[in-house]
Specification:
Number of strands: 6
Order of helices and strands: HEHEHEEEEH
Strand content: 5-15%
Number of domains: 1
Number of helices: 4
Radius of gyration: 16 Å
Helix content: 25-40%
Shape: globular
Strand order of the largest sheet: 3-4-5-6
């Protein structure tokens, strides 16, 4: 098995928003756990930290290819190895990598930007198995900000939530402009 595609009815309309955000939460934790597994593997042991890897933030463009019926191939959740190979990534890729490396204690627990104060519209995503997966480093979590860009259409931005209630935005550290509109 090389690639895995999750095909869901998420983000189809405003009527599916609650389901879509739950699905997004599941996908983010799946990527975080995959990143942790890679970083703990023999192959990933030599991987640099996110901020030392030369990665830049870049928005994904639709590829026109999708394993999912009716999909445009726009959103891909990329693991650490794929991001390093590509040299760029968007917010869910870099935030998941950052959460994984911090939780594993692989990098110093220092924020590269911020701290940003909490945001009333931020959704923090708790670990689905808190008693099973115990962090070795700080217990950071993924979180997202969302805003409606047109009726029934939402945009999401993924960040790192620190235990003190502040956020770190790896996308901004890696070159994304305009993230302040989220928080």
């Amino acid at each position: 098995m090389r690639d895995v595609a999750f095909c869901t009815d998420s983000f189809g309309s405003s009527a599916t928003r609650e389901y879509s955000e739950l699905t997004l939460s599941c996908f983010l934790w799946a990527l975080i756990f995959a990143d942790e597994a890679y970083l703990l593997s023999e192959r990933g042991a030599a991987a640099p930290g996110l901020y030392d890897a030369g990665i830049v933030w870049k928005a994904e463009e639709p590829t026109g290819k999708s394993a999912c019926e009716g999909g445009n191939g726009q959103e891909q959740f990329l693991g650490v190895r794929q991001v390093i190979r590509q040299g760029w990534a968007d917010c869910e890729d870099v935030a998941s990598w950052r959460v994984a490396e911090l939780r594993l204690g692989r990098v110093p627990a220092v924020r590269r930007m911020g701290p940003f104060a909490g945001h009333p519209k931020a959704t923090v995503i708790p670990c689905p198995w808190p008693g099973v997966v115990k962090p070795r480093g700080p217990d950071v979590l993924p979180a997202f900000f969302s805003r409606e860009i047109s009726p029934g259409s939402w945009v999401y931005h993924i960040v790192v939530f620190w235990p003190d209630g502040t956020f770190e935005d790896p996308s901004r550290v890696l070159g994304m402009g305009g993230a302040r509109k989220y928080g």
